[in-house]
Design brief:
The complex is a heterodimer of chains A (556) and B (551). In chain A, the strands form 4 sheets. Chain A has a 7-stranded parallel β-sheet with strand order 15-14-13-18-19-20-21, sandwiched between helices. The two termini of chain A are 17 Å apart. In chain A, helix 21 links the parallel strand 20 and strand 21. Chain A is elongated and about 100 Å long. Chain A folds into 3 domains: 196 residues, Rossmann fold (3-Layer(aba) Sandwich), CATH 3.40.50; 152 residues, Rossmann fold (3-Layer(aba) Sandwich); 182 residues, Rossmann fold. Chain A contains 22 helices and 21 strands. With 556 residues, chain A is α/β, with parallel strands linked by helices. Chain B has 3 domains: 210 residues, Glycogen Phosphorylase B (Rossmann fold); 69 residues; 208 residues, Rossmann fold (3-Layer(aba) Sandwich). Chain B contains 21 helices and 13 strands. In chain B, strand 1, helix 1 and strand 2 form a beta-alpha-beta unit. In chain B, helix 1 packs across helix 21 and helix 12 crosses helix 15. Chains A and B meet through helix 6, helix 7 and helix 19 of A and helix 9, helix 10, helix 13 and helix 19 of B.
């Protein structure tokens, strides 16, 4: 483990404006920052981009940085190598609320986890309840098991109010700020263009956007206006300009007489009203929305009704009331202050550096490393498999404990101190889903029939992980415990039936790593089972207990 | 109790939300409740109120009476009986009043507390229109006998007179009822699955759910209206509704066994229970559990609660010797053994007469190990059976096993016993009275508890020790929290998943009971009384964070 890991932060977000502010802020606070280089290209990520700018801050080996840069944290399952790099090199992950990435971090990362939240647009869902819907059944146990090293890093103080007590207890206020490229335009608004600046992206892509657009048109359509925001699908309205270049956008912020911000959502805000406030442009907004929540009193730009908003816009658009414009601009400075670098730096220093980073990590702070117990489970009662299981057991030294299973039937003379009798039994997909929720582990798809070890007592569920040994299984191994698959052919060359091969492939794919004894088996797994090389570890003659401990430790 | 200014009475409450048909007496949690209440009602300057829905009242009173807790020692806050239940209870009480001896005898057979004969208060109209058979048969006053006889004759005349007019209607009703029964029988034969029609059972479930929610809401309203009792203990996490109690409250979470053995609880019913438990815990302000392991491993890392929300209060000493007394004074050990032997012989005659292997078993001559537990996977009975099978093959005096669980046909336990022909070696003594339970402990060579998981230190240890029997316990964190003496660990604790180890330790314990008992004395003495446990509960209700009742 790297001594500097407390100083390194993985910033698992790709939002451009956000990165422009937060990554330099973290550097300024004396930390090293890693930003991901791959993300899914879809309308949800229209504001995302990649930057290599911060890689130079990292003091991790070049080869590891290359592996991280080639990895898609958003979509790919975390390979043993990725898990090891994250856990060995980084102490903190700041992660976006995106699935399955957030859940994989909860499952695989042993350091501090900060869920970066900026508010939800959904009227009823909380962050916790929505995660319940979209994540796998194991989610609630995973977040619970990380509860002493998890933080709900809210950008606005009211986000936690609707979350369950566990989230409320673990919340920290890490305010959002405006990047320098925006703050350098502070109070540069001059006005003069008698149009409303309105921002509404993806009008034709999302029903909600269309609704917002139509409402705006209904109430303000007769007044001069311009509508910005990226549009994946073209729009026939000439006022809808789509994504404009930076200079044009900057021009609108300087010259348009007023911005109308429609949102009534108390826990969500877009960037553009904040940008406008920074420019010093009068923003007319709804008091019920997040902007209204940020200040103690109702500011001159705030409106309770759409009629009030229209009245104010009318006064501003034709410069009929210069006092109102000045009042709005001056009062908005209160809001602007909450998004300045100075304010953010002070809060981040207090809450993140002095708070979060000072809390000890359970895995690092304890004098002795936490022990783990592994269940060694043969897939067949065969001499060669039995010998392999014995060998694995002999490699298990403290802090790694083991329990060896045997497929032989129990008899009074059996040495139960050495091995415990069990058999493989089938369970349905539905049963597996219930078990996953209780065990806090899930992986891959839920198949209709799965196999689990059955010893009539505790089914090896008290082990932290399993090592499955063999070359075939009648149905996929149920993913109710994390496991490594030790692939060994007791009799090479015997063909598998289609269903057995499929079940075996499924079991191998769901494993947290695959162990093989020789390159022949490795090639077979790559060719016949489509296993990625990254997931296979070849065990040679020098493989010892420490290597096994490293593998098991990195199994979530 | 009066509220004296110098010694103000501390009012505490226990909230119970068990649904209908939960056998309080058979549940470990029910027994634990009785132990805690028994300690609570003895606390000076404390007055306990128990809040429960109407359907629980009788069971609760009976459970507490079995543990020597009279109704007068606590206050009951209950919901009102619905009219049909009032009628039902009235009829039952009437039936009891006319045959009190039968009911006393039945209670004695069940091992329950013997009900006192309390004549029910009758309305003057009731006294006129009902016949008192006890008076008719036993009264020495000729006026009473004549009056009751007159009423009996009068009723007979009225009934015959009525029958003359309405017999055709009664006949028609009887025929209709007969046809209906035949039709039901035919339908059942045709489609046997009808009785477990999922839609019907779901509808029934929903109806029950609605009724439960309604009644619990009423109870919570009553609790919230309490002025004096504003500290409440909720003894299990099964009732998320309890979070609506506005007073200061602490929820007890014994354990989350479902998380520990997911494959044993992978079914929809367990899922529903788990969901309720999680909702309760996630919204609770303060919690109590019985061991550090449960606090750290399950409530903090399994549910995500903060450690400072949770207080650990361990169990007290269970004294079974109370059930082996003839008078009020405690008997000497030989007397106690003799009393226990009589109870066992009587049990043998009543319940084991048809068991060819155990009907003539000499309790005072053979050695047996005893395990009082239900048949659940985590109780690890299979390993104990394997250990007995191992011991059977050793050239030693036979060591048998007595279990209190039920032998369910087709279960792992049943299959193992059949397969290894262990019927002469294993007795399933389920549903025994407190006296028989104490007697079984008393005559056991050793009490062996191979459990894999408990909320706190297993009860069986103090239960056994209180009647002079040593114990062997499994190597689990809840046991290790209390047992730290290396010598005791070596002799008393075994690997629960290794039947060879269980067998070896059992053999040693059977051969050296006195030695083991002496080693366990200090451990037994370290357990507090239930009175001090109850005091800890009462104090904990007031010690957590801010007292909301004072806000």
């Amino acid at each position: 483990m790297d001594g500097n890991l407390n100083q390194r932060v993985v910033w698992l977000l790709n939002h451009t404006t956000l990165r422009e502010f937060e990554a330099p802020l973290l550097l300024r606070l004396g930390l090293e920052v890693y930003c991901p280089k791959r993300f899914p290209r879809n309308p949800d990520n229209r504001s995302a981009s990649v930057s290599y700018q911060f890689d130079s801050s990292l003091t991790i080996p070049e080869s590891e940085l290359r592996i991280l840069n080639e990895f898609d944290f958003y979509s790919d399952p975390f390979s043993p190598q990725i898990r090891q790099i994250l856990n060995d090199r980084f102490g903190t992950v700041i992660v976006a609320y995106m699935f399955p990435m957030f859940q994989r971090i909860l499952e695989s990362f042993r350091g501090r986890i900060l869920l970066r939240t900026f508010g939800s647009t959904h009227p009823t869902y909380t962050y916790y309840s929505f995660a319940h819907e979209v994540a796998s059944p194991a989610f609630e146990r995973q977040i619970a098991s990380a509860s002493d090293r998890f933080w709900f890093a809210q950008a606005y103080p009211n986000l936690k109010l609707i979350e369950p007590p566990m989230i409320q207890r673990r919340s920290v206020d890490l305010p959002l700020g405006l990047p320098e490229r925006i703050t350098e335009h502070h109070r540069s608004w001059t006005g003069g263009d008698p149009r409303i600046l309105f921002v509404c992206p993806e009008i034709e892509s999302y029903q909600e956007s269309l609704q917002i657009y139509l409402e705006f048109k209904q109430h303000f359509g007769d007044l001069g206006h311009v509508i910005c925001g990226a549009q994946s699908k073209p729009h026939k309205d000439s006022a809808v300009l789509g994504k404009v270049d930076a200079a044009t956008y900057d021009g609108f912020f300087r010259n348009c007489n007023v911005m109308f911000y429609h949102s009534r959502l108390p826990r969500h805000i877009h960037y553009h009203p904040l940008e406008a406030i920074c420019y010093g442009m009068p923003v007319v907004y709804m008091q019920q929305g997040m902007l209204g929540q940020l200040t103690q009193t109702k500011l001159p730009g705030a409106c309770d009704t759409i009629q009030e908003a229209r009245d104010k816009v009318l006064k501003l658009i034709h410069c009929k009331d210069s006092t109102l414009a000045r009042e709005i601009c001056d009062s908005q400075e209160q809001i602007y202050h909450l998004f300045t670098q100075q304010y953010a730096l002070e809060r981040w220093n207090r809450e993140f550096i002095q708070g979060v980073l000072q809390s000890p990590l359970p895995s690092v702070s304890q004098n002795c490393q936490p022990s783990k117990k592994v269940g060694i489970l043969p897939l067949a009662d065969h001499r060669l498999i039995d010998e392999t299981c014995q060998r694995i057991k002999s490699l298990c030294k403290k802090p790694l404990d083991s329990r060896l299973g045997t497929l032989q039937t129990w008899n009074p003379n059996m040495d139960t101190a050495r091995s415990k009798p069990f058999s493989w039994k089938t369970i349905t997909g539905e049963q597996m889903r219930y078990a996953q929720r209780l065990s806090g582990h899930s992986q891959g798809n839920i198949e209709p029939v799965n196999v689990v070890p059955d010893d009539g007592i505790c089914d090896f569920m008290d082990c932290d992980a399993w090592i499955i040994v063999g070359d075939r299984c009648s149905a996929p191994v149920a993913t109710v415990k994390p496991y490594a698959f030790y692939y060994i052919q007791p009799v090479p060359g015997i063909p598998l039936s289609e269903s057995v091969q499929r079940a075996t492939a499924q079991s191998i794919q769901n494993a947290h790593c695959v162990l093989v004894q020789n390159p022949r088996d490795r090639d077979l797994l790559v060719k016949e089972y489509g296993v990625s090389q990254d997931w296979i570890i070849t065990i040679d003659s020098e493989f010892d207990g420490e290597d096994l401990w490293t593998i098991i430790q990195n199994i979530p | 109790m009066d509220d004296h200014p110098e010694h103000p009475v501390i009012h505490d409450g226990i909230f119970l939300g068990y649904d209908k048909n939960i056998p309080l007496k058979n549940e470990g949690l029910g027994r634990l409740l009785a132990f805690v209440v028994s300690g609570w009602v003895q606390l000076p300057n404390h007055r306990l109120t128990i809040a429960c829905p109407y359907w629980l009242v009788k069971d609760l009173q009976s459970l507490l009476a079995d543990h020597g807790i009279p109704d007068s020692s606590y206050d009951l806050l209950r919901t009102k009986d619905p009219w049909w239940r009032t009628v039902q209870l009235r009829l039952k009480a009437f039936e009891r009043s006319i045959r009190p001896t039968v009911h006393r005898y039945r209670a004695w057979l069940r091992g329950d507390a013997i009900p006192e004969h309390r004549p029910i208060k009758q309305h003057w109209l009731e006294r006129i229109v009902t016949v008192d058979f006890s008076k008719l048969l036993h009264s020495r006053k000729w006026t009473s006998v004549t009056f009751e006889a007159f009423k009996l004759v009068a009723f007979a005349v009225i009934v015959f007179w009525l029958l003359r007019f309405i017999w055709p209607a009664i006949l028609v009703l009887l025929i209709a009822f007969g046809i209906y029964r035949l039709w039901r029988k035919y339908k059942k034969k045709k489609s046997p699955s009808q009785s477990i029609n999922p839609k019907r059972s779901m509808r029934k479930q929903k109806r029950r759910g609605r009724r439960y929610a309604r009644e619990i809401s009423r109870l919570i309203k009553q609790v919230n209206q309490q002025q004096l009792v504003n500290h409440w203990l909720v003894p299990t996490p099964f009732w998320p509704e309890a979070n609506r109690i506005a007073h200061t409250k602490a929820i007890v979470c014994p354990d989350l066994v479902l998380q520990q053995f997911p494959l044993r609880f992978a079914d929809p019913s367990a899922e529903a229970i788990y969901a309720r438990i999680l909702t309760t815990l996630q919204h609770a302000d303060r919690l109590i559990c019985y061991s550090d392991f449960i606090r750290t491993h399950q409530l903090v890392h399994g549910v995500g609660l903060a450690p400072e929300q949770i207080q650990v209060i361990g169990h007290g000493q269970v004294d079974l010797a109370e059930h082996l007394k003839l008078g009020k004074s405690p008997p000497s050990q030989p007397e106690q053994k003799q009393i226990a032997l009589e109870f066992l012989r009587s049990y043998q005659r009543a319940s084991l007469a048809r068991n060819p292997y155990w009907s003539r078993y000499s309790w005072d001559r053979g050695d047996y190990v005893f395990y009082s537990s239900q048949a659940r996977g985590q109780k690890n009975i299979l390993s104990l059976l394997r250990a007995i099978e191992i011991l059977r093959h050793r050239p030693i005096e036979p060591i048998r096993l007595v279990l209190t669980c039920q032998r369910s046909p087709g279960s792992d336990i049943d299959l193992f016993v059949s397969q290894h022909r262990l019927d002469p070696w294993v007795l399933f003594a389920n549903d025994v009275s407190n006296q028989v339970l104490a007697s079984l402990y008393c005559w056991a060579a050793v009490a062996v508890n191979p459990t894999l998981f408990e909320g706190g230190f297993p009860f069986t240890f103090t239960e056994a020790f209180s009647v002079g029997t040593p114990s062997l316990l499994s190597d689990i964190p809840m046991v290790k929290e209390k047992v730290q003496d290396p010598n005791l660990i070596q002799r008393m604790i075994f690997d629960p998943l290794d039947p060879q180890d269980i067998a070896s330790k059992t053999q040693w314990a059977v051969e050296h009971p006195e030695e083991l008992l002496a080693m366990e004395k200090e451990l037994f003495d370290s357990f507090p009384t239930w009175q001090s446990v109850a005091l800890s509960y009462s104090n904990s209700l007031r010690s957590f964070g801010i007292d909301r009742s004072k806000q």
